[in-house]
């Protein structure tokens, strides 16, 4: 094992502020049913239900079939699809009246599997059979039940090509750390004597050791340790502390152990760092729970690659707000930018066309037939997509042609800048195929201010679909910002062209960083291939980020006079590194594969950040950013009309430059152990009985969560 010449001070005092802050709003991360004692609560009025839940409630219908998904306008698999576990239970997001969320969770547990509870925001996540959904909707305290659409992750996988660098022999790793040389990690670790020791990196993704089932996942995990790709007993490189793992206690589609692939990349950069994993992909409540679980495990850094397409674009979600608060309290948080960019050649240049947005709804008359297709009552008007004096009531998205026999599935969302969770039935989306026939659109999640559409099928030629945004003009005079965006997760490209493809006036084309992945205080990571670190992966999501409403939960919901904007992503890291987990085709095993996407770039960046925290245990998040961004190698603008700040951020990570800047910072004095730690937001002494009780509450939640540690 590499040794460090740096004195490593305990990080517990540095972390105490954000551990205390989390305890004040702890989220329970549950492994299974809790006591059903509250199941006898008197039923109240029926809760609000999403369309999918309304249809399924009290039935024996199978929500996992392709036919059911198609009837709801949802994809059969992948992002935005329904999450159904191997017991036939549907993943649902539940809100309550807040009076007694723990009692409600006990009642829900009598009907299904509760996996997360957030007492602060009175929300739950559960898997419930269709036959029990009606009973769930009538539980006292339950105010809404929505299906939880599957989130995405910022990754792709492909079998490693023969011309990739050869795998060396005579090392303790079966697969080399591909990004270590181009990011200057080898020199940085050697000259500064660091390997990440004393630092804990938390990872959030879909699963860790469930691919092919729990037994196969555990066997693959054991093999990774034996091959030097992960720490744990038997690691040939001498890194023996096992990864702490909190996997979902049920099996659902899409559990490809991406978290284990991410852990391999962190370990490749910072092999001495302690690693912890928590799944957080079911919904936002589960994600907030995963963050709290990792902090309870001692995380100094958290990195995630979860992409929630239903996080509002124009309003900060509860998850985004949580991340920003924790960064203020001392946590270093990194997140994948996403893989939602789409490109097309326009007038001889490559342009991003992954999204189209206007700062204001511009009403014009709709063509015949659109009013009826919109489902809105009364008179309607349509969005004018032409920013000039001309008018255009639709915007044509042309999807690529595919070979005969191949299928095509493209997911596109429309959003309007109205408050999340309020009534928004005054706007609608209509999409028509080349014959003018409307395509089924879908409600994505209860409270989401927008609609989605899945374009499926196959054509050998590019095919244009017309998008209309429609307003019930007799019901509202609101003219909010509107946006249409692809949530197709990168490879292969699906858009051939976009009718209005140029940023002009109030209209902006291209930005695709969304939700918590664009949190102001997080480090948002873009991707470049390790074999060509001067480039940018074409799918890497772009900024800037726009907001037009106060954060969710604010006392006021009045829109801003103008949209606010800030640049993202923040930094460029590398992807395409080899790993043993993510394979192509999915499900293959026993090989060496390349890990593509911002899901690979972000844990690679987190490993580099860990080296700096070992070298200087007192680093604040702002100091990490200053050193990381200030030492980055600038990259020019990748696309005409899009600045470097909104494509590659500060530039490519340079680990040696980062450690050099960290070394110049003054070392803080040792903390006085007699002085009680102070919470920055309240100044409360964490030794007071009330806060001790909250810590005990969090500890109890941790014990309820299945904890898997290699070798135990």
UniProtKB/TrEMBL annotation:
<protein>
    <submittedName>
        <fullName>LPXTG cell wall anchor domain-containing protein</fullName>
    </submittedName>
</protein>
<dbReference type="InterPro" id="IPR050131">
    <property type="entry name" value="Peptidase_S8_subtilisin-like"/>
</dbReference>
<comment type="similarity">
    <text>Belongs to the peptidase S8 family.</text>
</comment>
<dbReference type="InterPro" id="IPR023828">
    <property type="entry name" value="Peptidase_S8_Ser-AS"/>
</dbReference>
<feature type="transmembrane region" description="Helical">
    <location>
        <begin position="687"/>
        <end position="704"/>
    </location>
</feature>
<dbReference type="InterPro" id="IPR000209">
    <property type="entry name" value="Peptidase_S8/S53_dom"/>
</dbReference>
<keyword id="KW-0472">Membrane</keyword>
<keyword id="KW-1133">Transmembrane helix</keyword>
<dbReference type="GO" id="GO:0006508">
    <property type="term" value="P:proteolysis"/>
</dbReference>
<dbReference type="InterPro" id="IPR036852">
    <property type="entry name" value="Peptidase_S8/S53_dom_sf"/>
</dbReference>
<keyword id="KW-0720">Serine protease</keyword>
<dbReference type="GO" id="GO:0004252">
    <property type="term" value="F:serine-type endopeptidase activity"/>
</dbReference>
<keyword id="KW-0812">Transmembrane</keyword>
<feature type="domain" description="Peptidase S8/S53">
    <location>
        <begin position="516"/>
        <end position="651"/>
    </location>
</feature>
<keyword id="KW-0378">Hydrolase</keyword>
<dbReference type="Pfam" id="PF00082">
    <property type="entry name" value="Peptidase_S8"/>
</dbReference>
<keyword id="KW-0645">Protease</keyword>
């Amino acid at each position: 094992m590499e040794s460090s010449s740096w004195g490593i001070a305990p990080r517990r005092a540095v972390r105490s502020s954000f551990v205390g802050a989390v305890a004040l709003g702890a989220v329970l991360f549950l492994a299974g049913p809790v006591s059903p004692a509250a199941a006898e609560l008197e039923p109240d009025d029926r809760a609000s239900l999403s369309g999918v839940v309304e249809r399924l409630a009290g039935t024996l219908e199978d929500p996992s079939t392709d036919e059911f998904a198609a009837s709801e306008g949802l994809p059969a698999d992948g992002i935005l699809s329904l999450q159904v576990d191997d017991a036939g239970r549907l993943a649902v997001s539940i809100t309550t009246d807040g009076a007694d969320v723990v009692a409600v969770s006990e009642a829900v547990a009598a009907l299904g599997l509760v996996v997360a509870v957030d007492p602060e925001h009175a929300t739950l996540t559960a898997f419930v059979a269709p036959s029990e959904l009606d009973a769930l909707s009538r539980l006292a305290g339950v105010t809404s039940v929505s299906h939880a659409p599957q989130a995405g992750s910022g990754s792709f996988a492909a079998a490693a090509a023969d011309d990739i660098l050869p795998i060396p022999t005579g090392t303790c790793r079966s697969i080399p750390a591909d990004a270590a040389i181009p990011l200057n990690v080898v020199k940085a670790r050697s000259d500064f004597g660091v390997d990440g020791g004393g630092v804990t990196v938390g990872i959030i993704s879909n699963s860790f050791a469930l691919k092919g089932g729990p037994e196969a996942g555990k066997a693959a995990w054991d093999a990774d340790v034996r091959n030097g790709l992960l720490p744990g007993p038997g690691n040939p490189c001498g890194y023996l502390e096992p990864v702490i793992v909190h996997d979902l206690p049920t099996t659902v589609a899409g559990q490809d152990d991406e978290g284990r692939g991410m852990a391999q990349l962190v370990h490749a950069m910072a092999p001495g760092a302690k690693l912890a994993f928590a799944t957080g992909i079911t919904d936002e409540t589960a994600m907030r729970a995963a963050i709290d679980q990792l902090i309870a495990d001692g995380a100094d850094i958290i990195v995630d690659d979860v992409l929630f397409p239903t996080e509002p674009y124009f309003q900060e979600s509860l998850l985004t707000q949580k991340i920003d608060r924790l960064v203020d309290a001392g946590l270093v948080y990194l997140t994948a930018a996403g893989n939602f960019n789409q490109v097309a050649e326009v007038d001889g240049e490559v342009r991003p066309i992954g999204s189209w947005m206007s700062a204001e709804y511009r009403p014009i008359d709709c063509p015949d037939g659109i009013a009826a297709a919109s489902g809105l009552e009364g008179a309607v008007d349509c969005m004018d997509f032409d920013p000039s004096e001309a008018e255009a009531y639709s915007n044509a998205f042309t999807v690529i042609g595919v070979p005969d026999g191949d299928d095509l599935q493209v997911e596109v969302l429309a959003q309007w800048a109205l408050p999340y969770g309020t009534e928004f039935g005054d706007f609608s989306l209509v999409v028509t195929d080349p014959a003018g026939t409307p395509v089924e659109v879908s409600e994505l999640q209860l409270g989401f201010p927008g609609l989605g559409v899945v374009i499926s099928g196959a054509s050998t030629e590019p095919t244009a679909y017309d998008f209309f945004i429609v307003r019930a003009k007799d019901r509202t005079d609101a003219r909010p910002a509107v946006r249409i965006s692809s949530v197709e997760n990168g490879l292969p490209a699906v858009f051939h062209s976009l009718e209005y493809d140029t940023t002009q006036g109030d209209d902006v084309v291209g930005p695709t960083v969304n939700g918590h992945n664009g949190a102001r205080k997080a480090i948002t990571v873009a991707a470049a291939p390790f074999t060509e670190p001067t480039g940018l992966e074409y799918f890497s999501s772009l900024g800037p980020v726009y907001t037009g409403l106060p954060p969710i939960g604010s006392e006021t919901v009045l829109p801003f006079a103008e949209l606010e904007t800030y640049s993202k992503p923040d930094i460029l890291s590398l992807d395409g590194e080899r790993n043993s987990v993510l394979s192509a085709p999915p499900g293959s095993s026993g090989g060496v594969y390349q890990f593509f996407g911002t899901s690979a770039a972000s844990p690679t960046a987190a490993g580099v950040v860990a080296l700096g925290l070992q070298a200087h245990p007192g680093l604040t998040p702002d100091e990490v950013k200053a050193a990381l961004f200030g030492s980055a190698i600038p990259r020019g603008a990748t696309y005409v009309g899009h600045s470097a700040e909104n494509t590659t951020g500060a530039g490519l990570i340079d680990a040696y430059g980062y450690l050099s800047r960290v070394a110049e910072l003054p070392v803080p004095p040792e903390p006085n152990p007699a002085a009680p730690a102070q919470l920055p937001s309240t100044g409360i002494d964490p030794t007071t009985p009330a806060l001790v009780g909250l810590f005990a509450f969090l500890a109890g939640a941790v014990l309820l969560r299945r904890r898997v540690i290699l070798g135990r």
